[in-house]
Specification:
The chain is 34% helix and 18% strand. It is α/β, with parallel strands linked by helices and 152 residues long. The protein has a 5-stranded parallel sheet with strand order 3-2-1-4-5, with helices on both faces. It is globular.
């Protein structure tokens, strides 16, 4: 069954959209989770158009959603490994199908905090604050840390 919800209790939820900037956001959230001694819950929200293509997707065959979900988790594992998280951080990964803002807010409902970046993979480069970050700040049931996108 493909997940649309995460049953998270405690810890820090961080959104990772697959963008380059998301690695810095995960690293910041991971540092905070390590200092507080809590679990870091890394969430990637996906749909068929944003998910990486499963290996079985060839010649017009569209695989089941579960294979897309596994491809998302595989990419998320690699992204978290390259983010430079401390080895003693307890990390849980989630691939949730749906709309980013809704899924992040739902996932964070039982957490201590939600962490997002100011800019992600979508939208317009000139905006200082992305639509997902704006909506999360407005509607989150828990405190939100917004990590600025610091240019390389």
């Amino acid at each position: 069954m493909v997940r649309k919800d995460a049953d998270i209790t405690g810890g820090i939820v961080v959104g990772h959209d697959g963008s380059r900037a998301a690695g810095a956001v995960v690293r910041r959230a991971g540092d905070l989770a390590r200092r507080l001694g809590v679990t870091l819950h890394v969430v990637r929200v996906w749909n068929v158009t944003t998910a990486p293509r499963p290996d079985s997707m060839v010649g017009g065959y569209v695989p089941p959603f579960a294979e897309f979900e596994q491809a998302v988790i595989s990419d998320l594992k690699a992204d978290c490994a390259s983010a430079g998280l401390a080895g003693d951080v307890d990390v849980q990964l989630y691939a949730l199908r749906g709309q980013a803002t809704e899924r992040l807010i739902d996932a964070a409902a039982g957490a201590e905090m939600l962490v997002v970046g100011t800019r992600g993979a979508g939208g317009f480069a000139g905006l200082r604050f992305g639509s997902t970050a704006t909506q999360v700040v407005r509607h989150s049931p828990v405190p939100v840390l917004v990590v600025p996108n610091i240019p390389d």
